[in-house]
Amino acid sequence: MIHYVCKYTPIELFKGFGEECAVLEEMPENFEMSDQIAHANLCGFGKSVIQAVLEGKADQLVLVNCCDSMRRVYDIVASTGKCKFLYMLDLPHEDNECEKVKFAGAIHRLKDAYEAYSGQQFDKELFLRSFAESEKEREPYIGVLGVRVSGVLEDMIQDNIQMKVDNLTCTGGRRLAVLPEEMETMDEDAMFLAYADALLAQMPCFRMNNSTRRNQLYLDPDLKGIIYHTIKFCDYYGFEYASIKKNIKVPLLKIETDFTSQSAGQLLTRIQAFSETIEGSEDMDPGTGISEEARKKMKSGVYYVAGIDSGSTSTDVVILDQNGKIKSTMIIPTGGGAMMSAEKSLAAAVEKAGIQEEDIVRIVTTGYGRAYIDSGDDSITEITCHAKGAHYLNPNVRTIIDIGGQDIKAISIDEHGAVTNFLMNDKCAAGTGRFLEMMARTLGLSLEEMSTKGLEWKENIVISSMCTVFAESEVVSLVAQNKNVADIIHGLNVSVASKVGALAARLGKKNPGEYMMTGGVAKNQGIINALEEKLEAKLYICDEAQLCGALGAALFAYEKCTAGE
To answer: β-pairing, 252-257 with 223-231?
Structure first.
């Protein structure tokens, strides 16, 4: 098996040797082996290639000199001696006639190199038979752009988006316009020139100087949304993303991974929320999902619905009555698993409402633990649910800032409460509720004490690190210097506000309207003051701020029932 990393690789050439080819898309759990011999700042994909070679998963490998990282990967892999056949293909940056001739020569040299390595002769007939005719049917689709995506990530996107997904990254969208019958009569030089022409005529990747045909993609009426993937420490694709964001008219989601399977798992909520933004949630379809038993209770005129928000810190429940009014709420700490916490919180909310659990005809779950709650009839991402709940509480809100236990979300919504854009910081605890919990513990305070004590500050102390571990060390050092605790807390509040404010600012100012803060951190007046100063805007805070996700889930359940009527 010959592995390759770029769609410009002449894989049909190897078919002429009777060899099979496959994209090297190994997404390891970690870079334990590659980190021992590669620089820490090498891009994640480069490390994944090295890791695959060291693990013996790729002993024949063709790379391309598309960037400095691939050149470094080639040198490192060559030094290991693990590859039986390792080749660096010289790829041009243009598709003009001169570069086509040069690329044809590079293909010819690759053929000679493989003949010398394998002892086999190139078979022209096998080569020509390898070109498969593929007609692309016109239908609505989501384009995955940017740097290469692994099979794991591509499958995750496809599984969570009902629309067709087209991989148009470094290795995807490989379509060659060739006529094998015409090439059959050519000599080898002419044939390889036509082959080079077909390879370079593909939808260009961003490293190509002429991106005209790539820009035409954005005008495709069948393109309904873009998921733009970047890899940590990769500099190439940030420029294109900035251009797309400025000019594109379809929904756009940017995701970043370090090319490990763990980083892919973190993206599930974003991908599902993006799907709901484009296609709507299945729960919004009034024609399905209402059982006959539920319909009978609804006909009686007295029934209830519930929303359960299973977060990392708390599990929240909201129960609505048949008129869509809040009947009962409950917030308990998450512990012992999402399912157990959901059952406990729901039971407490039912008891508080003075009803029976059997009176609840529909339950919608949301939050990180939603997939593990069996009692729910539907599951919707917390992004969509927070938008729904915020719009219910204040229809004038257009930007929602949710500081949860383990992430930060900034969400733009329209006048109907539908999500128009969102950003998340879910890769570390910086600026989250967990960050504040750890700082409070370090200072020997409760969260309630910390939320008010910082209001008494006098000296403007700067906390330079947002990393939870380093910030904790910084706080310990400030305490040792006998700095006032109120001043330290104020410094922490400002650092959190800077992180959150930067995320909100990236949504832009094109969605005028009120700001609303949700989540448990909305109770922290020091954070609110610091954030309002950063945003230069007033934050709408309500008593139900922490319940916003559960409220949105309950509202979806209620709307499903009333639409079903």
So the answer is: parallel
